[in-house]
């Protein structure tokens, strides 16, 4: 199977499908646009399945590699490949795209073709990010994916959408521009190569390493987002339409974390070790402080947005403890968070579509009118809190376990997340779902329809599957994570 | 007395000679053409430009050829830039036609003839190898443009803009001439290649040279429109009729780049340490003032004027990184990156003004930012084209503007001036804001009027092609990048 350019297909099938959907034009053809978008998203997912089935789990290096010259003048190549770290994200992304297309099926009635096309194109670009092995190719995908999301937030977003769209775009652009300058520095240091794999082998002195690490840190910290550059995320989430929130949480946030593993750790390992304390401190602040911030939110989307930041704090914490357990735990957490946060935002979307409010105070007693929904929402809230048997538990547990070995106090602070997570997730659940029917709107609620139920059921199965049997996921990562850690352990200073 | 008169080799200047002849012929022919049949003039002008391009291609030898007693040079750089000038001018005339047609008081043959003379001026500037040739080309271009800015003579704004442009342009020319005369005084030559040798070999009076250089650079800065010599740009862009703004904002930038290359790089490279410092200041100031002032604009043409200032500042970064502490290893890389930047910029800016021209109707200039509200509802396709242009100008991949910025930035980093790259990057970020705002108006806001946009098919097709080129060349920037590098390699 690996003779086919699978990664190129994973990138270009959704983008081409997006182009075709755009051609359907105005809202007269909305049903056609929806149908084409669904076909494109499903096709986009199907072409990624051979990546999983054909993946060699014993091999830690790059697989499904494609290498073509692109801009020979600067030795920039169209160089694609995935390893155990990135492969799962390509699948997750393609999967989430189907969810998103389905999630916007009836809800979006305005400029349907453009809406669907934006998601498909973004999906292709994000696959490009996860599979690029060339720095500039990575950067092109990384930046280009801002454009569709900017439009999604700005065109289909809520009342304060313009502010949120600008904040999102400019924040991310700021981070990535310094990243670009760092890449150029590496280009000249490596004697004219933009290949990420070449950079992995490039010896660099500690001084420049620190600067490069900081440039990377700014780029990826904004994207993750880490405290204190996280403020764009709650705005973006609150204003974005449901689909935008799902993609942003499920995939968008993973891009920054992925950048740490692909760039920061292997390219500047000494600086990463040197400054690990800084990143761990920022991560713990995210886990504890942002956890408390989430607790006091009155807006459900904001609450889940803050909980995302706290969960991503776990991920960055895991990366910088440099143990296989921690990194694998962080990766599992990333994928799990993709399912769970996507589902959480979808649940909030379901309620918002009916009541047009995201305020917790406007709800109460939803279980009386939407029992099926309440059951599924319960599962995801539990997963968000990290309940055993859900996917949310596995990653957090692995990271905490590694942290105990690393340092007791780090583990202690990280473990507060389990309490805080339970507190904000379940308290919100209680206020929204239980109790007496709060008002007329809740009384008139209708339970989830077939489409919504299907989406939630699929996500629920994924959450449970990962929670009960995470081994297929960790097996895929194992070899690559070990390779990475062996690489990081060797100093690059000569 | 005619004993040593040698007939010069006309071939290297064949396109210029043809263009001059045709421009004069069209001027005469136009006298006999009724206003209603102005299309004839248009077709003749376009045919002339296309023929010039053909002549350029067929007479090009790829070698450096001097003629007219070394006053005129033809090399690969000139050939390439001239071809882009022809191409840009053809696009400019196409975009302008409907606009002029709807406004009978401006639809005169003079527009086309002056455009041809302006083109001739650019060609002469590009091929100049002597201070006098430089000056003649520059004045031919400037004088044509002064007149064109005032084409709409009933408009107070246009007249004022023309007046300002003329006075400031004359001042700049004076400075340039003064600088040239100083340098002539120090070296005893007006010829650029001889000047380079004289500076390299001889003992010259450095004080006089640097004194002259300051004036020369000031004059150039005026013509390029970089801070603090940029005052005319916003007023002229704003006041001039949009087709003229389009012309001023596009092809002359190519000629200005050539001017910098001829005067500073070919002629005064030994003084690189001195002029690079000046250009760094001009460049950083331009990026700062251009990007910051653009944010405050409510008029799209004015915004694009400030954007032009910042882009020229960015382009200068490529020029200032050619020689690093006497080491010219990266010179080719640096200059070709600047050249690529200019070409990319011209491509984007023609497309941007093309959209403005397409939107405008008789009595409606479509130059306020608010006129673009809800464009996505009225014409999704052209909103998409404008979106591409805006993101490209902001330097967001995968459009050509990103690779333009990329190539200049890598030249800056190669020269070791990472702080300069960071400054450039920070101002690009600030610049992104106002480009995003145009996208916001088009996509996020509701339209002010729902009228359908009417435009002739040929403009729709050309504009689409232009917009797609901005996107497609972003996916495949290699061709133009290596063309620039190759042309400069063969010319320097």
UniProtKB/TrEMBL annotation, chain A:
Subcellular localization: Endomembrane system; Membrane
Highest taxon listed in the record's lineage: Bacteria
Single GO MF descriptor: ubiquinone binding
Domain NADH:quinone oxidoreductase/Mrp antiporter transmembrane stretches: 134-416
Sequence intervals crossing the membrane: 6-23, 35-55, 85-105, 112-130, 136-156, 168-188, 208-233, 245-263, 275-296, 303-322, 334-352, 373-394, 406-427, 448-468
Name of protein: NADH dehydrogenase subunit M
Organism: Azonexus fungiphilus
Family of the protein in this entry: Belongs to the complex I subunit 4 family.
NCBIfam families: NDH_I_M, PRK05846.1-3, PRK05846.1-5
UniProt keywords, alphabetically: Membrane, Transmembrane, Transmembrane helix
GO cellular component: endomembrane system; membrane
Membrane topology: Multi-pass membrane protein
PANTHER family given in the database record: NADH-UBIQUINONE OXIDOREDUCTASE CHAIN 4 (PTHR43507:SF1)
Keyword Thylakoid: no
Keyword match Membrane: yes
GO biological process terms on file: ATP synthesis coupled electron transport; electron transport coupled proton transport
Automatic annotation (TrEMBL), chain B:
First-tier enzyme category under EC: translocase
Record-level GO BP terms: ATP synthesis coupled electron transport
Domain of life: Bacteria
Complex formation: NDH-1 is composed of 14 different subunits. Subunits NuoA, H, J, K, L, M, N constitute the membrane sector of the complex.
Keyword tags: Cell membrane, Membrane, NAD, Quinone, Translocase, Transmembrane, Transmembrane helix, Transport, Ubiquinone
GO cellular component: endomembrane system; plasma membrane
NCBIfam families noted in UniProt: NDH_I_N (TIGR01770), PRK05777.1-5 (NF004442)
InterPro entries, A to Z: NADH-Q_OxRdtase_suN/2 (IPR010096), ND/Mrp_TM (IPR001750)
EC number: 7.1.1.-
Catalysis: reaction(s): a quinone + NADH + 5 H(+)(in) = a quinol + NAD(+) + 4 H(+)(out)
Organism: Azonexus fungiphilus
Topology of this chain in the membrane: Multi-pass membrane protein
Function of the molecule: NDH-1 shuttles electrons from NADH, via FMN and iron-sulfur (Fe-S) centers, to quinones in the respiratory chain. The immediate electron acceptor for the enzyme in this species is believed to be ubiquinone. Couples the redox reaction to proton translocation (for every two electrons transferred, four hydrogen ions are translocated across the cytoplasmic membrane), and thus conserves the redox energy in a proton gradient.
Cell compartment(s), UniProt: Cell membrane; Endomembrane system; Membrane
Family: Belongs to the complex I subunit 2 family.
Domain NADH:quinone oxidoreductase/Mrp antiporter transmembrane, first and last residues per copy: 128-430
Lineage, top ranks: Bacteria, Pseudomonadati, Pseudomonadota, Betaproteobacteria, Rhodocyclales
Pfam families: Proton_antipo_M
Spans traversing the lipid bilayer: 12-33, 40-60, 80-99, 111-128, 165-187, 207-233, 254-272, 278-296, 303-326, 338-360, 381-404, 416-436, 468-489
Protein name, UniProt field: NADH-quinone oxidoreductase subunit N
Keyword Translocase tagged: yes
A molecular function (GO) term: NADH dehydrogenase (ubiquinone) activity
Gene (name only): nuoN
């Amino acid at each position: 199977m690996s003779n086919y350019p699978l990664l190129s297909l994973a990138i270009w099938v959704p983008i081409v499908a997006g182009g075709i959907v755009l051609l359907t034009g105005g809202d007269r053809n909305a049903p056609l646009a929806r149908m084409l978008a669904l076909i494109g998203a499903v096709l986009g997912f199907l072409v990624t399945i051979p990546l999983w089935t054909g993946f060699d789990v014993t091999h830690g290096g790059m697989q499904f590699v494609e290498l073509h010259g692109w801009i020979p003048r600067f030795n920039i190549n169209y160089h694609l490949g995935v390893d155990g770290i990135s492969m799962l994200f390509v699948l997750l992304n393609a999967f989430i795209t189907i969810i998103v297309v389905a999630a916007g099926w009836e809800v979006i009635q305005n400029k349907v073709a453009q809406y669907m096309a934006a998601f498909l194109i973004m999906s292709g670009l994000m696959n490009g990010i996860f599979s690029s092995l060339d720095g500039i190719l990575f950067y092109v995908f990384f930046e280009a994916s801002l454009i569709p999301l900017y439009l999604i937030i700005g065109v289909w977003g809520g009342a304060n959408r313009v502010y949120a769209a600008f904040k999102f775009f400019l924040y991310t652009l700021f981070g990535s521009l310094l990243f670009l300058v760092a890449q150029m520095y590496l280009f000249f240091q490596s004697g004219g190569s933009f290949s990420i794999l070449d950079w992995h082998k490039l010896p660099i002195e500690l001084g420049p390493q620190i600067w490069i690490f900081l440039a990377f840190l700014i780029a990826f910290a904004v994207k993750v987002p880490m405290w204190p550059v996280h403020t764009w995320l709650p705005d973006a989430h609150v204003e974005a339409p449901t689909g935008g929130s799902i993609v942003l949480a499920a995939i968008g946030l993973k891009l920054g974390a992925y950048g740490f593993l692909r760039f920061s750790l292997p390219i500047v390992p000494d600086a990463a070790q040197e400054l690990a304390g800084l990143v761990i401190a920022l991560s713990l602040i995210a886990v504890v402080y942002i956890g408390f911030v989430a607790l006091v939110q009155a807006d459900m989307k904001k609450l889940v947005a803050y909980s995302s930041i706290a969960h991503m704090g776990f991920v960055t914490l895991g990366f910088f403890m440099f143990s296989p357990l921690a990194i694998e735990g962080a990766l599992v957490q990333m994928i799990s968070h993709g399912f769970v946060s996507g589902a959480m935002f979808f649940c909030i979307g379901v309620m918002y579509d009916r009541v047009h409010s995201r305020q917790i105070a406007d709800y109460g007693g939803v279980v009386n009118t939407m029992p099926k929904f309440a059951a599924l929402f319960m599962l995801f809230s539990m997963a968000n809190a990290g309940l055993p048997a859900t996917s949310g538990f596995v990653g957090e547990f692995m990271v905490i376990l590694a942290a105990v070995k690393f340092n007791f106090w780090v583990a202690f602070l990280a473990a507060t997340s389990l309490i805080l997570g339970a507190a904000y997730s379940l308290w919100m659940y209680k206020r929204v779902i239980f109790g007496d029917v709060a008002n007329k709107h809740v009384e008139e609620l209708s339970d989830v329809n077939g489409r919504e139920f299907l989406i939630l059921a699929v996500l629920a199965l994924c959450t449970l599957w990962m929670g009960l049997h995470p081994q297929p996921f960790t097996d895929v990562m194992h070899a690559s994570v070990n390779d990475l850690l062996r690489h990081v352990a060797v100093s690059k200073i000569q | 007395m005619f004993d040593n008169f040698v007939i010069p080799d006309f071939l290297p200047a064949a396109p210029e000679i043809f263009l001059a002849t045709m421009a004069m012929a069209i001027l005469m022919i136009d006298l006999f053409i009724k206003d209603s049949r102005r299309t004839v003039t248009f077709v003749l002008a376009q045919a002339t430009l296309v023929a010039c391009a053909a002549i350029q291609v067929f007479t090009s030898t790829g070698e450096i050829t001097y003629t007219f007693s070394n006053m005129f040079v033809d090399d690969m750089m000139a050939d390439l830039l001239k071809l882009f000038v022809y191409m840009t001018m053809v696009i400019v005339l196409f975009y302008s036609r409907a606009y002029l047609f709807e406004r009978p008081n401006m639809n005169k043959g003079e527009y086309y003839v002056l455009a041809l003379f302006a083109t001739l001026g650019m060609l002469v500037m590009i091929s100049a190898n002597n201070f006098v040739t430089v000056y003649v080309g520059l004045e031919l271009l400037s004088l044509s443009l002064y007149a064109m800015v005032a084409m709409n003579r009933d408009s107070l704004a246009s007249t004022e803009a023309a007046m300002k442009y003329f006075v400031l342009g004359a001042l700049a020319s004076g400075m340039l001439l003064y600088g040239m005369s100083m340098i002539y005084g120090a070296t005893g030559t007006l010829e650029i290649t001889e000047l380079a040798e004289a500076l390299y070999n001889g003992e010259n009076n450095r004080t006089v040279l640097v004194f002259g250089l300051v004036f020369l650079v000031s004059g150039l800065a005026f013509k390029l429109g970089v801070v603090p010599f940029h005052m005319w740009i916003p007023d002229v862009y704003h006041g001039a009729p949009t087709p003229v703004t389009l012309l001023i904002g596009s092809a002359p930038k190519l000629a200005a780049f050539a001017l910098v290359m001829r005067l500073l790089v070919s002629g005064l490279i030994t003084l690189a340490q001195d002029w690079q410092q000046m250009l760094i200041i001009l460049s950083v100031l331009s990026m700062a003032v251009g990007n910051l002032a653009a944010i405050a604009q409510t008029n799209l043409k004015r915004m694009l004027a400030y954007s032009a200032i910042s882009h020229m500042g960015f382009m200068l970064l490529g020029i200032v990184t050619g020689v690093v502490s006497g080491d010219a290893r990266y010179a080719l890389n640096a200059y070709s990156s600047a050249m690529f930047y200019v070409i990319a910029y011209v491509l984007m800016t023609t497309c941007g003004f093309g959209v403005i021209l397409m939107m405008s109707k008789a009595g409606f200039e479509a130059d306020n930012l608010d006129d673009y509200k809800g464009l996505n509802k009225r014409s999704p396709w052209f909103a998409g084209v404008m979106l591409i242009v805006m993101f490209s100008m902001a330097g967001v991949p995968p459009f050509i503007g990103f690779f333009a910025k990329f190539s200049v930035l890598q030249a800056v980093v190669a020269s070791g001036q990472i702080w300069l790259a960071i400054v450039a990057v920070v101002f690009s970020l600030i610049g992104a804001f106002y480009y995003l705002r145009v996208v916001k108006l088009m996509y996020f806001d509701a339209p002010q009027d729902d009228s359908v946009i009417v435009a002739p098919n040929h403009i729709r097709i050309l504009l689409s092609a232009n917009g797609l080129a901005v996107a497609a060349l972003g996916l495949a920037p290699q061709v133009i990048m290596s063309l620039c590098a190759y042309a400069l390699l063969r010319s320097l």
